[in-house]
Amino acid sequence: MDSRLNKTAVIALVVLALVLGLLLGAWSGLADRLFGSNPKTIATASLESMRAQNRLSVFAARYVSVVSSHQQKLGGLLNYDRTLILPGDVRYELDLSKLQSNDVSWDKSTGTLSVRLPELEVAGPDVDIKAVKEYGSGGVLSALTNANEQLDQANRDRAVQDLRKQATAAVPMQLAHQSARAAVERSFAMPLLAAGFKDVKVVARFPTDGTTEPSFIDLSTPYEQAINQAERRRAQGQK
């Protein structure tokens, strides 16, 4: 009796194992169909997720512009000097909504997922209103003319141009581009690694990589607008 029971139990366990194997195989096939079984399918899902983020800030830096203006009258008998110290934070961003499906390509032979990035956008400056300083001297010339206002305006215009020049110089632009590539490559690589594709290489590139042509869109804020925005932020912070 015990022998027959043991034999029946063994057969039941074998049958159960076969059924579980079939179920696991069926689920594996279903999962592949639902979630994708190749890097291109996973990359497409990652692309839609990134597009939903809209904008990605990849780098930020603070620059300080120090500019001075000089004016003289009566052959140098009357002199007037004004100096402006203007700090500003600049953001480097990617507009992920510009990514399209044809910007992502999969090369099966090399196991490489290539991503073509939109141009980097340089936005700002966000002026620290508390740190803005203007000073100078003028004496008689200041009292008799509007030299003060003229030189201050000239300094402000030059300061904005100087901040823009600093922000788009070779070194910060290189750092911003590197940060953008790394962020996008990481965003595509992580889902692939989670899906088991450990040998896939993700390469993100800008359209002008490998050339001397700059790849960015200048969204710099005019001085008066930057000051108004800084004053609004300061007022909101005091509430």
Q: Any overview of this molecule?
A:
It is a single chain. The protein is an alpha/beta fold and 239 residues long. The protein has two domains: 1-35; 36-238, no CATH class. 49% of the residues lie in helices and 29% in strands. The protein has six helices and eight strands. It has helices at residues 2-35, 39-53, 140-144, 147-167, 170-194, 223-238; strands at residues 55-73, 78-95, 104-107, 112-116, 120-127, 133-137, 201-205, 216-220. The strands form two sheets. Strands 1, 2, 5, 6 and 8 form a five-stranded mixed β-sheet that branches. Strands 3-4-7 form a three-stranded mixed β-sheet, with helices on one face. Strand 3 and strand 4 (112-116) form a beta hairpin. It is elongated, with a radius of gyration of 31 Å. Mean pLDDT is 75; it is low at 10-36 and 139-147.
